[in-house]
Design brief:
Elements (H helix, E strand, L loop, with lengths): L4 H14 L19 E2 L9 H13 L5 E3 L1 H6 L3 E2 L6 E14 L5 E16 L3 E2 L12 H11 L3 E4 L5 E3 L4 E4 L8 H15 L17 H21 L11 H10 L3 H28 L1
Parallel strand pairs: 1-2, 7-9
Antiparallel strand pairs: 2-5, 3-6, 4-5, 8-9
Helix pairs in contact: 1-7, 4-5, 4-8, 5-6, 6-7, 6-8
Length: 287
Amino acid sequence: MKKDLYAEITSEFLVALKEGVKPWVCPWEKRGMLALPVNMTTGNPYSGINVLLLAMRSYQAGFTSNEWVTFKQAKASGATVRKGEKGTRCVFFKPVEKNVVNENGETETEAYTVINSFTVFNRDQLDGIEKPAVEPTWAPIADAEALCEAFDCVTVHGGDSAHYIPSVDRIHMPEREQFAKGEDYYATRLHEMAHATGHKSRLNRELIGKFGSDAYAFEELVAEFTSWMVCSRIGLEGEMQHKSYLAHWIRILDFDKKALFKAASLAQKAHNYMLARLEDAQQDQAA
């Protein structure tokens, strides 16, 4: 019987969520490894659902490296996978076309994608290769402030809650002094900026769900993934001051086995949008 990868992967995340754990909040930040997962051989970052899969595995195993490699790549680099180590499943999507006969008896081409899996190992699972010294390339607070300044959405300070209002495309934040740490302020603001990427003038996500609805909770999941990715990318260790929607997320994932994949894909696009604003601003300063 063919495996249902959507159902299997969603089930793994549901187990963690039902235990009250956000499995994408992995131990990298606790060991100075704030960074999204990359391939050890190519240096290319993993994206979408694979970021979450590798974060969850790191959370479970306590890996200290954010570098991953296939068995073949490990061998080519002169390393060996330690005996008894278990690989981590990642997925890729392959476009497929086939000819079908429509209701008029005519032959037409139908395009769709199929999901397949491959296995990778963390650098911590390898022998015969030295661990590189970690040299941070980002200044967390400075880059968080630069990203906030570069982002194309008005932010108003005042009041006791952080929220984004799509109808007027405006972010509301408490005063900075109301946060225990600067990192907490920026983590919270980045979360609201993640929502703002969905505005019709940017990535045009559906932002009309009422509070407490599944649509609202789904958008919160997208923003949660996005802000976590961005914080990891710039090395920010703040606590986001917003409500948790674990129960809503569990209901959504229980109902739709592809919801997690969709949320991860949308979050990747939002992350890319936000980081592009920062990179543009940095290039303008350097010019």
